[in-house]
Every structure is written in C-alpha cells, then in structure tokens.
Design goal:
It is a single chain. With 164 residues, this protein is mainly beta. The protein is 9% helix and 26% strand. It contains 2 helices and 14 strands, in the order E-E-E-E-E-E-E-E-E-E-E-E-H-E-E-H. The chain has a 3-stranded antiparallel sheet, with no helix packed on it. A hairpin with a 5-residue loop joins strand 7 and strand 8 (77-79). Bound molecules: zinc ion (ZN). Zinc ion binds at residues 91, 133, 135, 137, 140-141.
Length: 164
C-alpha cells in the first residue's frame, strides 16, 4: 500500500508545522493500539540501522511536563503530540532523542513491526506519573521514575511485592 501523496510521503505532523526534510512520515511509522495499558504506540514500517537518524522532530516549547513532552532544559519542555507522544518506554530502548538537535536516532538496528521506544529517564528529571515497567529487557528497572526522582511510596510497595 503506497503512502505517497502527490509524490510526497505523508508527514505525521499537521499542516501548520512547517515541513522539513526528515520529519517522520506514514511511510516509515504507524500509530497502533498496543492492546494493553500502554495505550497507543508507534511501530516502525521500515528498517533503520544503528546510529541512523530515524526522524527530525518538530513541536512546541512549553513550560510544563505532559505525556507529550521531552525535557530540553531544567525549565523547558518540547511538546510533540504527533510522534514523541507515541514513543513507549523501554529500559533497553531502540531510540534516543538527541536534545540539542531534536533528532531521534536508532540505538540498534530496528526492523519493521518493532515498537519505537525510548527510556523516559534519559531525558526527563521527572515523569508525569511513575509507573511499573514490564518491558522484558534484562536490565528492566521494574519501576520507572525520572532521572532525578526517588521511587515514590507506590513504587516501593510495588517493588517489595514483586521482588525476586
Ligand atoms: Zn523496563
């Protein structure tokens, strides 16, 4: 099925975002329902090589954190509800966001059908809400916090019940 329209691929970004080379497009990604409590996620339709730029990001800078945001400074957040919003967390992610350039890069080879994942703690001091993780990676932390947060009471109870 061709995603081409007028010879161009269709951007995941809406028309009011000025079009830029490298913006994520429907030819490379699809938004799917995970069928579990993670909600919707973003699956690759393409093959990406380790180190390759997967997407050039665009969005809006805001002064507060939401589910759509990536932290870009101690007080500023980059909101991208069209691509970043759908990046699921993994403790062993296949993607990293390079904050200075606002580019998503492959941390390893990515195959079609794989969910695009980032480590939420890699960019954000605090997460909107700490949560249990069952990403299946050998280094899974089981409870996800921002990089400068302590595990909250709910997390301590969760880890105590689920340890070993
Ligand atoms: Zn995990």
């Amino acid at each position: 099925m061709s995603q081409e329209r007028n010879g161009r691929t269709t951007s995941l970004y809406p028309d009011f975002i000025p079009s830029e080379e490298g913006h994520p497009a429907t030819v490379d990604f699809e938004i799917v329902n995970t069928g579990d409590d993670r909600g919707r996620g973003l699956k690759s339709r393409a093959t990406f090589k380790r180190g390759e730029r997967v997407a050039k990001l665009s969005g809006i800078v805001v002064d507060h954190t939401t589910l759509d945001t990536i932290q870009i400074s101690p007080t500023l957040f980059f909101s991208d509800p069209w691509f970043c919003r759908f990046l699921l967390h993994s403790c062993d992610p296949n993607l990293a966001i390079d904050v200075p350039t606002l580019e998503a890069r492959a941390l390893r080879d990515i195959q079609p059908g794989e969910y695009m994942t980032i480590d939420y703690a890699a960019t954000d001091d605090k997460v909107t809400s700490q949560f249990a993780c069952d990403c299946g990676s050998p280094n899974c932390r089981a409870w996800v916090t921002g990089r400068s947060e302590r595990i909250n009471e709910e997390g301590r109870v969760y880890l105590e019940i689920n340890k070993g």
